[in-house]
Amino acid sequence: MNSKYFKPINEKIISASDFLKELEKRPENIKKSVFIPPKLGTQGFGQVVVTFRSLRSVLDRHNHKDKIKD
Questions:
Q1: What is the pLDDT of residues 6-22, one digit of tens each?
Q2: Residues ≥6 apart with Cβ < 8 Å to 45
Q3: I need a labelling partner for 24 at 20 to 30 A (CA). Which of 8, 15, 66, 67 fits?
Q4: Rounded CA separation 53/32 (Å)
Q5: Taking Cα atoms as reference points, which of 3, 17, 1 lies closest to residue 59?
């Protein structure tokens, strides 16, 4: 059986395009954002560290089997 372990977070590193989607969807939930520019020679537009006003739940794919039993 596939168990899922969700952990609450209030800060997340996301891509610039995901940040724009989040900004359109729920701008009131973004407390603070810090842009991380891309490294020279890499593709993409960098990343954004987003601090949310309310906690969010994300799937923790690491060591979740130790915490929840089927």
A1: 677 788 899 999 999 99
A2: 15, 16, 17, 38
A3: 8
A4: 8
A5: 3
